[in-house]
Amino acid sequence: MPANHTYVPEGYDAVTLEVIRMRLDSIVEEMGSAMIRSSGSPVITESGDFNTALFDPEGRIYSYSDFVQFHIGSGSVAVQNLVAEIEGEPLHPGDAFICNDPHTAGSAHPPDTNVISPVFHGDELIGWAQSQAHLVDVGGMTPGGFAPGAYDCFSEALRLPPGVKVFERGRPVEWVRRVLLNNVRVPTLFWNDVRSLVASNNTGIRRLCATVEEFGLDAFRDYTRVNFEIAERVVRERIALLADGVYEADEWTEHNGHVNDLYRVHCTMTKSGEQITLDFTGSSPQTDGFVNLSYGTLVGSVASALVPILAWDVPFNEGVMAACSVVAESGSLVNPVPPAPISNGHLTTGARVSRLVTKLLNEAARASHDALIRARSQGVWADSWTGGISAGTRDDGEYFVLFNMDGGGMGTGAQPVADGLDCGGMMTQVNNALPDVEMNEMLYPVLYLWKRLNTASAGHGAHRGGQGHEFAWRLYGAPEVTQTVFAPTAQVVADGFGGGYPGGGSGHSVWRGTNVGELLSHGTVPTEATLTADGRELLEINQQDVAIGSDDVFMQWVAGGGGYGDPLLRDPELVARDVADGYVPVEVASQVYGVVLDGDSDNGGPDAGATRQRRAEIRAERLGGPPPERPVAAEASPESSAPRRDADGWYCPASGARLSTGDDWRTDVLTRTGVAAERLAGLGVRVRPRESEPAVLLEELISPACGTLLETRVRVAPRGTEAGTP
């Protein structure tokens, strides 16, 4: 954010303020580059699953890199708890501390390992350099650190609390190194990654010390304090533009590793003036499965949604989150205590928190009088990582662990002005990258058969949600692997906004006893049409110890983002292009978007007259037969199906039809409810059916006057409620 003279206090130079701020940002970015260049793990080098940051002596954030956003919370908790733990102990340049325990160090899960180093100016402690990355294995009951079968945190991994010194005066603490390497499956890779975290910190220390030397310690402290204050002021001004009120919503975590149940993530957001309070009271109690969320990652997951929605151009430092309070009950799903297992809480419950905060901010933005803030509303991102970890022994006898970062290829939510990004990643990982097929095949004994967009994943809308992707591989150079999988967005998928439909879900399957070897031996590229199999096994949402042999084919599909706006408001030319690109089938173009193509051909353009007629028919179908009383304006824009409020109440901008004079317009419109998986399957969107209570429903809220689709929302029915009952 360029320095603005209106924000600069008297006596401070705006140029110096901005130079110091940008210097800190460049330092944490350079720390990331140092980590990438010194690490041997594709999780770091290919996919950027790490963060780097600088903190002041008390643990307040000077600057944070934009790789993984939920580490904002876990990194802060790690530094603050370290400061408290080692108070009074001697510290020296070259020291480094390691921690990974979610309960005591705030880590998102045990593989996310922190290395924290003190920064000295002369003999004075002036800050901390912190680097955190996902390490491929950290011990525990399953390779890779994700443990669906764990009933407690002691089974998941080697637990390192704050205060474990791994380097002293620049040299490894040898007995600590021996203990660590004795407890992990790939010790060489593990230690090299620890060293890369130390190298990252050392880079930050050198650059920060040079900056302090250049500007002087007193000036550095003053200007960083002012930058904190400026960031806080900008965010508070944005919050003030949201509509005051109390907003509530739910999300649901699926399957805890043992039981295919749904676990509630509830939040009450109170927005008053320049302050937001997010109270997660009412969320489910902690469970004995691996989906519990550490408090540090709860805060980071909140920040992951709050920052891009309200602070999109504000450089991140301690001031950004000052106007937001987070409340969570101890012993709950979002603030567990030992012995709760946590190894996948960040990618399940944490991602649900980000989705939940997005939905709440959508509601507050919808009622804002400021057009810029209303434009921050969006379809919900798929956000929950779909994981696959393969472990086994190669033909040459070498043991390997593949944590496939292809799981980050989920679609983002649609925006008021554009479709969502295909394979855009999580809201928490804005620098998401997918590994090259060739890199994975070079490093691991797998051969990809295909890797493509998952066209059954995008949420339909005036702007379409982003598509996830799907891929398949077979073993090539290993006789068998043991597979761990998790597909957090399978049954409860990402909502759309303003009439956009939800996106599709994730999953895994194994085709057993295929003819893949025979096809390859004859030079035939395997496809779903040419592959035969003795059986097709749909894996559980979370499952470990799945054996995959050399004649099997492993498949994974990744969720898509929610759409934005009524699909009938999508530009027919865009629908025709989607059909030509293979993103939307002809029947979906007609059934969902109301677009009829010339000649009923895949390559035909839209037939304007037939499209107008088809869209009128769909609006009448929504109303149960009668034609709409109010026509939708010919110039209606994609965002005009989201209800707005004026002095007389709520109305539909697409037609001007009045909806309600109450606080909640939803009670006065037409609502149709059905089973989510069935309804979305009829729209060409793949969602895993739920076979037991509670039922997952889809509500479609329709303007009774004009037939505009105002909102769709995924809802979990109370237990004992018949599926489809409003």
What does this protein structure show overall?
With 726 residues, the protein is of the alpha+beta class. Helices cover 28% and strands 22% of the residues. It contains 16 helices and 26 strands. The chain has a 7-stranded antiparallel beta sheet, with helices on both faces. A 5-stranded antiparallel beta sheet has the order 14-15-20-17-18, with helices on one face. A hairpin with a 7-residue loop joins strand 8 (245-254) and strand 9 (262-272). Helix 1 (14-38) packs antiparallel against helix 6 (187-215) and helix 1 crosses helix 7. It is globular, with a radius of gyration of 26 Å. The two termini are 47 Å apart.
Secondary-structure blueprint:
Elements: H1 14-38, H2 42-45, E1 50-55, E2 61-64, H3 71-85, E3 96-99, H4 102-105, E4 112-121, E5 124-134, E6 164-168, E7 171-172, H5 174-181, H6 187-215, H7 217-241, E8 245-254, E9 262-272, E10 275-279, H8 295-310, E11 324-327, H9 346-366, H10 371-374, E12 387-393, E13 399-403, H11 437-443, E14 446-454, E15 468-475, E16 480-486, E17 507-512, H12 516-521, E18 535-538, E19 542-549, E20 553-557, H13 572-581, H14 586-591, H15 608-622, E21 644-646, E22 649-651, E23 658-660, E24 670-675, H16 676-681, E25 696-702, E26 709-716
Parallel strand pairs: 10-11
Antiparallel strand pairs: 1-2, 1-5, 3-4, 3-6, 4-5, 6-7, 8-9, 9-10, 12-13, 12-16, 14-15, 15-20, 16-19, 17-18, 17-20, 21-22, 22-23, 24-25, 25-26
